[in-house]
Amino acid sequence: METYFIETWGCQMNVLDSQRLEGLLQRHGLSRVERAEDADVAVLNTCSVREKAVGKVLSRLGELHLARLAGGKPAAVGLCGCVAEQEGARLLARSPALSFVLGPGRIAQLPAALDAVAAGRRVSVTGFGPVRDYEAHLIARGSGARQYVTVIEGCNQHCTFCVVPYTRGRESSRPLPEIVREVEAVAAAGGKEITLLGQTVNAYRCPASGADFGDLLQAVGATGAAWRIQFVTSHPKFFTDNMIEKLARTPGLGTYLHLPVQAGSDAVLKRMHRGYTREEYLGLVARIRSAMPEVTLSTDVIVGFPGETEADFLETLALVGSVRFGQLYGFAYSPRPRTPALHYPGQVSRSEAGERLQRVFEAQSPVQLELNQGLIGRSVEVLLDGPAKRGSEAWQGRGPDNRVVNVQGWSGIACGQVAEVVITGATAHSLLSEVGPAALPAA
Questions:
Q1: Is there a smaller number of Cβ atoms within 10 Å at the N or the C end of the chain?
Q2: For 271-310, how does the pLDDT look when each residue is reduced to its tens digit (9 = 90+)?
Q3: For residue 303, what is the enclosing H or E element?
Q4: How far apart are the first and last CA of the chain?
Q5: Is residue 26 part of a domain?
Q6: How far apart are CA 402 and CA 255, in angstroms?
Q7: What b/e sequence results for 360-394 when a residue is b if at least 16 CB atoms lie within 10 Å of its CB, and e otherwise?
Q8: Whether this model's pTM surpasses 0.70
Q9: Distance of alpha carbon 58 from alpha carbon 63, whole angstroms
Q10: Burial class (CB in 10 A: 0-12, 13-18, 19+), 99
Q11: Whole domain around residue 427: which residue ranges?
């Protein structure tokens, strides 16, 4: 086996896991190609958060099986990520295209799986060992200016709608000095924006010192290594006043904070096992905004959760209107295997959940437009990602508040540049800008 291709679905954690897989494949002597159908080894790094995840995987495996029958490649197909942990050997038995299965806690076993496949065996390795293998020096990060660093893996919260505790295991925090060294190394290699990752990132506790997430942020910020530090995903119940104060004092921290609420009804929040009430969430928002006046809050909202009444939904709609989030990610409830909510009574029909979701977006859109229009005339620094559309002269990036900013390109523009721009226009979902009159784009 000489070549590989990795196909990544899902969240930022899966993106980083794919970089870990890529580093191991390269260490095994394989080179990257641009299509799974041209690779000796094709790896599907999957996500199971949404419904029909297994069906999507089986469909893709069927396509790769047909490609193998037609042209002999990919010779080996591996399944990684959350669907791998969820389904394990069942998918290996179900799909003739599949050569090996590796759960998220078994990424380090990839070379052994490849050796097994070369010896003619099909293997499934899932579960979680007592120690998590995380070899930062083997991550194939590429040259991107946006980079990720894991600080805590797994989740202990067991929200009743969420499959993550079953697919990524229990919480396991990395030592604080190890994280700081990795951030410094990533920044030295060209990383400008570094996002600290965890399913419940602010539940972090250093296993050696007991330092909390606020301590970690201060230690990372004090290095001055990166242009900007971000983090996802935080849980409302883990924010203390002391942690909020440390966030406010951390240099280099962006003005963006993702704070998932999920629902605005106490009855629904209790059935979700979220660990806070509506008023506690609103009080947290007030304390955060008092300490960080420039903060832009985003959130997740789930509608159509089992037992959600119209009155419950209206409470969610009212909370969205009162908080005035800068960004909102809305979802209709999706039943997931092994989760308690799968068996709850009062399942809401798809059509009703879809109608409620549309009402959330209709309520949020004018708020976002108004907030974005309020930024017109401001000068902001933007990290550029590339052309807004293929062949377009307009380029796209994000400011410190994570809003999408479009700017007209110039001679010498390149991905990863930081440019100072002036906001000239706004839609509900992005900002328009021009390069500031006194600002030269910084390499």
A1: C
A2: 999 999 999 999 999 999 999 999 999 999 999 999 999 9
A3: strand 296-303
A4: 39
A5: yes
A6: 8
A7: beeebeebbeebbeebeeeebbbbbbeebeeeeee
A8: yes
A9: 9
A10: buried
A11: 379-435
